[in-house]
């Protein structure tokens, strides 16, 4: 009698853990895709020298990042979040000074930080071993 209750409890707990893990991965992927889309637009506008558009997009990026950061802070190592914050700040200053090569370089670093998160947190053999 107790064996059935224990087994059901274990199965339910496992289902809860797995569903939470899948939700977390989906959340990270969705947020990172939003951020990557904005970053790609920033990169293109920077290369074209459309500084007004770049500043608008940078503002949109910061808004989206602050939304995502709240959830990510619970799920991720804070070093990752600090790296993204630092990279956004550097890119912002390079854009403000109209330094195209440095802005493009920092945007590429920022894009890599954002892409890296879902890859790092996903289920894969590489992450298990």
Provide an overview of this structure.
The protein has about 130 residues and is mainly alpha-helical. The chain has one domain (about 25-129): Four Helix Bundle (Hemerythrin (Met), subunit A) (Up-down Bundle), CATH 1.20.120. It has helices at about 1-50, 50-75, 80-95, 100-120, 125-129. It is elongated, with a radius of gyration of 19 Å. It starts with a helix and ends with a helix.
Q: Which CATH architecture is right?
A: Up-down Bundle
Shape: elongated
Number of strands: 0
The end-to-end distance, rounded to whole angstroms, is 38 Å
Q: What number of domains?
A: 1
Low-confidence stretches: none
Helical segment count: 5
Q: Could you tell me the CATH topology label.
A: Four Helix Bundle (Hemerythrin (Met), subunit A)
User: How large, in whole angstroms, is the Cα Rg?
Assistant: 19 Å
Structural class: mainly alpha
Residue share in β-strands: under 5%
CATH class: Mainly Alpha
- Largest sheet data: none
Mean pLDDT over the residues: 90
Order of helices and strands: HHHHH
Helix content: over 70%
Short description:
This protein is mainly alpha-helical. The protein has helices spanning 2-48, 51-75, 78-96, 100-121, 125-128.
Could you name the key traits of this structure?
single chain; 129 residues; mainly alpha; Four Helix Bundle (Hemerythrin (Met), subunit A)
Topology readout:
Layout lengths: L1 H47 L2 H25 L2 H19 L3 H22 L3 H4 L1
